[in-house]
Design brief:
Blueprint (H helix, E strand, L loop, with lengths): L1 H10 L1 H12 L9 H4 L5 H6 L4 E4 L3 H17 L5 E5 L2 H11 L4 E4 L5 H11 L3 E5 L5 H10 L2 E7 L3 H7 L3 H8 L4 E4 L2 H9 L7 E3 L11 H14 L5 E7 L4 H14 L4 E6 L5 H10 L4 E3 L13 E3 L6 H6 L3 E4 L12 H5 L4 E3 L7 H9 L3 E3 L3 H13 L1 H17 L3 H11 L1
């Protein structure tokens, strides 16, 4: 199986190059640093080797989740040398923004045997930490052959992912048995790993690092300033981390809600930066007045319908100055995005039915009364209308959200302790 896998990957190289070219039309950053995709680290990364720790975080979500753990390692272990790899340019930008030059960064190579071996040999890390569930056979084999420790953290393995891996049980087991330890988010993730052949003693259930949200006092102050800029007396509904296919439904819901709440402002924050310009045009075609965050308007006029969040790293700030939050990736079958940030800020959260990437978290959020799931755009409109019309309900759900987050904190410390032990 491993030889078939490696052969197929090598045959897929031209398609990988075509994919980079096509993605570059939406985000030109995909047109640069191609050598890193094939295992050739930058001069800066090579000069800083060997590394004490290599952390792989695929994109924005994983980079945000890994940042508190990395920051703690830097604080507790002065002089520690850390490399962070990401797959996407947006993940790279998030690493730069959150860790501000305290770590080295490089794009993660394609899982080609020769490329991965070259990269592993170059960075020469003592330990490798992979965020969530990036199971790459050549990466795992190369890391173990190098003698480094390999640790997976914040692991979530949905029913869909498990079903895919379970089609090749012997092959997957032979790969996973090389990993030293898994820190999983919940019981289902533990169960799925064990069904794939991972011994129980190699698994610890630590919860999700995303519960350890740190809300700085300065963020609250910045949110108050932003709220005054947007309109202190306006109701604000935010749709965050939205994906293709969802925005049309959200804009339709907004138009309907506007009839009942004439002063309502929609903050719309697409998940992917390459879609910012497209969304600005789409909003204007709907005959809605749009102002972009990058326009840096000192005070929003009352006739503005949509405030387009077209910056990186400010979604939390925008959640903090909103009355109701909808979290995207969930009205379409995309698996959902992080619903814990608005909960931590005391903002009632609404999400769609497709939360298969966060099954436990979405279920707990509903159970604790901190959020509501809607099945379609009509139900989304009704639920948001109910929340906008009822300040006491918003306050109650917001308080329950903060209590819910506080009750589940601790995964960060557990993961740090496990890394220390290993």
């Amino acid at each position: 199986m491993i030889y078939i896998y490696r052969t197929l990957l090598n045959l897929a190289i031209p398609f990988g190059l075509i994919s980079l070219c096509l993605r570059g039309f939406k985000n030109p950053d995909y047109w640069s640093r191609w050598s890193e995709r094939f295992g050739s680290a930058s001069e800066e990364v090579r000069s800083n080797a060997p590394y004490d720790l290599w952390v792989h975080a695929v994109s924005v979500g994983e980079a945000r989740a890994s940042a508190p753990l990395i920051q703690r390692l830097i604080k507790e272990k002065p002089g520690i040398n850390i490399l962070v790899t990401t797959t996407t340019p947006t993940g790279s930008a998030m690493v730069d923004m959150m860790l501000q030059g305290k770590v080295s960064h490089c794009y993660f190579p394609y899982d080609l045997n020769w490329a991965i071996k070259r990269f592993v040999a170059t960075v020469n890390a003592k330990a490798v930490l992979v965020m969530e569930t990036e199971i790459w056979p050549n990466l795992i084999s190369a890391v173990k052959q190098s003698g480094a420790k390999l640790f997976y953290t914040n692991v979530r393995l949905s029913e869909r992912s498990y079903a895919g891996y379970a089609r090749f049980p012997n092959f997957v087991q032979s790969i996973l048995e090389q990993v030293d330890f898994f820190a999983v988010q919940g019981k289902n993730d533990r169960k799925h790993l064990q069904l794939l052949g991972v011994p129980a003693e190699k698994i610890a259930e630590t919860g999700s690092i995303k519960f350890d949200v740190n809300i700085a006092p300065s963020l609250r102050e910045s949110a108050e300033v932003m709220r005054r800029q947007l309109g202190q007396d306006r109701l604000i509904w935010i749709a965050g981390s939205t994906r293709d296919g969802e925005e049309s439904k959200i804009l339709a819901a907004y138009k309907s809600l506007k009839e009942k709440f004439p002063s309502l402002l929609l903050i719309l924050v697409p998940r992917h930066p390459e879609r910012f310009d497209y969304m600005a045009r789409k909003i204007q075609r709907r005959e809605l007045v749009c102002v972009r965050r990058t326009e840096d308007v000192a005070e929003l006029s009352a006739d503005v319908d949509v405030y387009l969040g077209d910056t990186m790293g400010e979604l939390t700030l925008m959640y903090a100055c909103s009355d109701v939050a909808f979290v995207g990736g969930s009205l379409e079958p995309l698996g959902g995005q992080n619903i814990l940030e608005p909960c931590a800020l005391g903002v009632p959260v609404v999400f769609g039915p497709h939360m298969f990437n966060f099954p436990d978290i979405s279920r707990w959020t509903i159970k604790e009364g901190a959020g509501k799931m809607v099945k379609d755009v009509d139900e989304l409109t009704d639920v948001v209308a109910e929340l906008l019309a009822n300040p006491s309900l918003r306050d109650e759900m917001g308080s329950k959200g903060m209590a819910f987050i506080d009750a589940h904190r601790g995964a960060l410390k557990k993961n740090y302790d496990l890394i220390e032990r290993l």
